[in-house]
Amino acid sequence: MARDEFALIREWTGRSYGLEGNGVSVGLGDDAAVFSVAAGMEVVACCDAMIETVHFLRETMSPCDIGYKAMISNISDIAAMGGIPRYALVTIGVSPGWQADECKRIYEGIDQAAKLYNVRMIGGDTVATPDALHLSITLLGEVESGRALRRSSARAGDLLFLTGPVGSSAAGLDLLLSRRERAVEPRPDWQTLVAQHQRPTAQVEAGRLLLKSGLGRALNDISDGLASEAWEIAEASGCKIVIEAERVPMLEEMRSYAASVGKNPLDWAFYGGEDYQLIGSVPATEAETLAAAFAEHGLPFYLLGTVEAGQPGVWLSEQGSERPLPKAGYNHFKDEAGEDQNG
Amino acid sequence: MARDEFALIREWTGRSYGLEGNGVSVGLGDDAAVFSVAAGMEVVACCDAMIETVHFLRETMSPCDIGYKAMISNISDIAAMGGIPRYALVTIGVSPGWQADECKRIYEGIDQAAKLYNVRMIGGDTVATPDALHLSITLLGEVESGRALRRSSARAGDLLFLTGPVGSSAAGLDLLLSRRERAVEPRPDWQTLVAQHQRPTAQVEAGRLLLKSGLGRALNDISDGLASEAWEIAEASGCKIVIEAERVPMLEEMRSYAASVGKNPLDWAFYGGEDYQLIGSVPATEAETLAAAFAEHGLPFYLLGTVEAGQPGVWLSEQGSERPLPKAGYNHFKDEAGEDQNG
User: Fold this and answer.
1) I need a surface site. Which of B10, B62, B118, B258 has the fewest CB within 10 A?
2) Mean pLDDT of B27-50
């Protein structure tokens, strides 16, 4: 990619995001961006990278989807702290196989997600890479001082909840890959699963409700699969978590697609990941109030298990018996997945 | 690289940086980090990526140097705003040719620079990449509200200054490459140039002095070469900049090495980059006071030209005549360099 094509991307992003004001003192176009933080608020910061062939394939994600999903995965991390997403710094590494027009569409996807969640792009870096495209985003947000929702806050006596169905993204990916590999004829309603994989939703409103109501205790987002995220809460909180298999929310489209390919849908729910729902805990005595608050805001809410005293770990309760739920997820394309130091 | 090797890196970085307190409410190990900002301060944010084969070669930089320099290039961007570097989020993309032990040494380099500049690692991501190693760092700092030093603040009547010699890093790289390609026998004193390339210094103290004294006007850091950075100030400020060739500070070692390889040292000074000195402007009436303040702090200070009214651009004054100084720098390894959206 030639230097003037980088300039084009830069110009395009500058046109879309470079404005100052509304908390931003210095936007794009200087050595660093500068923004103010409202009194009583702290900064929430995370970063998450997506690498071609490791996290996505050109065949399964359009350039616009790639940008969109990279933003969502970061916004979701802010949501999982109960925070408000505010600013993004986007680093794109462009390899020779990617055209300027495709890069522009990646930024369009970033822009679409940014607009939807009121995020402004305030910085970044555009570099050449020899091989795979990579997209690394830092997202900065705000949260009320001392009130961020932690993984480590679950307590025995809490109930475990989810903000929506899980496993859809993995099923959608399977459908995308099987079209190519197994020539499965997709049913029109399965398209929902593909959309969940390519254009997921971040649960910012749910995260804010959990924080503002004072009822949410532990919180985590489902980026690596329900099992792995429940394990993170169990280990960080020093508790035993029991998930009831029948209560795991899954889309009917996901179940029917799983049946058609002879797959246990719980495998996708537990080990698929990239659903970006929130999993958390609420004191049992407050669960009904919280469920009502979610209902009032038109947000889904599912109780799916309990937090108990005991050796930290996750158990699956199914047909009256409990068995340990293994921690490990799987990676879609490779044996080794990314490890998020704060994700 | 196997999953447990990623875990090892994660564990290692967690051990070194994961602690909370002192402004950090949530450190490594949750979905996002959370920190507070002191009253009267704003957040300064930048990010800068370094890609193997584009920004460095294994032959010219040890793993420890790579980590160290990636931190410095980001800390330098904070310095160029007059800010205080505080927190880092580090994303490393590890390709199959890199061993866990080398990755650990990259983090050791990051750690060394972080300790030197009081920066804490609060987050990041560790991912696999198919080919080249990449290291992308977001640096967050603080600056007094409304007082960040901008590229756009130069005014006609200002004098142009530099905080130290330029061109040393490019000369050091040339020396490293020529050892391999031209079998040049290096003189011991040229080792200084190699050190400037591998272990540069960020001018945080100078940046703070410029801000706190109230005397610094425009400011920029030399990441892409003196010509390119002067052009950025000229264009952002809408001024003509005139640089006097004889005043450009260059190390004696750099001049002698340039002479030995038949190179004009000004080429490295103007187009080499990665010196991480600060270039800025000061009202002419305040230049003497500012120079005295630098001297008092034991910091170098060089006046090298003037800011004038006129068509935005950079001119070189040499032996009594002025000629336009081209903007373009060069890239060390490839034809297309990275473009920093805020760097």
Assistant:
1) B118
2) 94
ipTM of the complex: 0.91
Which 169-228 residues of chain A touch chain B by CB within 8 A? 219-221
Report the candidate in A93, A334, A1 with the shortest Cα–Cα distance to residue B133.
A93
**What token pair was written down for A180?**
């190519």
pLDDT averaged over every residue in chain A: 90
d(CA A289, CA A213): 10
Domains and CATH numbers, chain B: 3-144 (3.30.1330.10), 151-324 (3.90.650.10)
CB B86 within 8 A of CB B142: yes
**Across chain B, which distance is largest between two alpha carbons, in Å?**
65
- Concatenate the DSSP letters of all residues of A113-172 into one string: HHHHTT-EEEEEEEEE-SSS-EEEEEEEEEEETT-PPPGGG--TTEEEEESS--SHHHHH
Instruction: List all residues 6 or more positions away from A207 whose beta carbon is below 8 Å from its beta carbon.
Output: A78, A79, A80, A81, A82, A83, A149, A216, A219, A278
Confidence band (pLDDT; 50, 70, 90) for B6? low
Assess contact for B114 and B71: CB atoms under 8 A: yes
* CB proximity B138 to A under 8 Å: yes
Q: Which residues pair with A302 in a beta bridge?
A: A162
> Which chain B residue lies closest to A132 (C-alpha atoms)?
B130
Q: Taking a C-beta distance cutoff of 8 angstroms, is the pair A156, A275 a contact?
A: no
Reported as a single tens digit per residue, the pLDDT across A10-65 is 666 665 555 677 789 998 888 999 999 999 999 999 999 999 998 999 999 999 99
Cα–Cα dist B18/B122, whole Å: 7
Q: Which residues of B touch A122 (CB under 8 A)?
A: 45, 342
